[in-house]
Amino acid sequence: MRSSDILACYGGEEFVILLTNTPLKTAYEIAERIRKTIASNDFIISLSQSLNITLSIGIAVLDETKLIITSQRLIKEADKAVYNAKINGRNQVHYAI
């Protein structure tokens, strides 16, 4: 992440990364890189156990043509995109349409 980006916990199992001045294509590439990195690593929780974790990621960008112009709408659209990633098999990146 860049120093201008913000990572925050948003709910029990959800996180938000705000990527400043980032077009959709670049945001998608960053999300894919994060998803692949997490999925390719085992997380050791004890001497005999490890976890494999996957991510479902939703992306939304501020966009006047799609009427995504407020922070509330931005979060709502990203949440819809996460839901679509989950119902389409999980461990995917989807963006708001």
Order of helices and strands: EEHEEEHE
How would you name the CATH homologous superfamily? Reverse transcriptase/Diguanylate cyclase domain
Terminal Cα separation, in Å? 25 Å
Q: Identify the strand order in the major beta sheet.
A: 1-2
Helices, by number, come to 2
Stated plainly, the CATH topology is called: Alpha-Beta Plaits
Average pLDDT, rounded to a whole number, is 93
Major sheet characteristics: 2 strands, antiparallel
* Number of domain modules: 1
Instruction: Tell the overall outline.
Output: globular
Q: How much of the residues is beta strand, in percent?
A: 15-25%
Secondary structure: elements and pairs:
Blueprint (H helix, E strand, L loop, with lengths): L5 E4 L5 E4 L5 H16 L2 E3 L5 E3 L4 E3 L11 H17 L5 E3 L2
Parallel strand pairs: 5-6
Antiparallel strand pairs: 1-2, 3-4
Question: What do you see in this structure?
Answer:
It is a single chain. The chain is 34% helix and 21% strand. The model has no long low-confidence stretch (mean pLDDT 93). It has one domain (6-95): Reverse transcriptase/Diguanylate cyclase domain (Alpha-Beta Plaits). The strands form three sheets. A two-stranded antiparallel sheet has the order 1-2. Strands 3-4 form a two-stranded antiparallel ribbon. Strands 5-6 form a two-stranded parallel sheet. It has helices at 24-39, 71-87; strands spanning 6-9, 15-18, 42-44, 50-52, 57-59, 93-95. Strand 1 (6-9) and strand 2 (15-18) form a beta hairpin. The two termini are 25 Å apart. It has two helices and six strands, in the order ββαβββαβ. The chain is α+β, with helices and mostly antiparallel strands. The radius of gyration is 14 Å and the shape is globular.
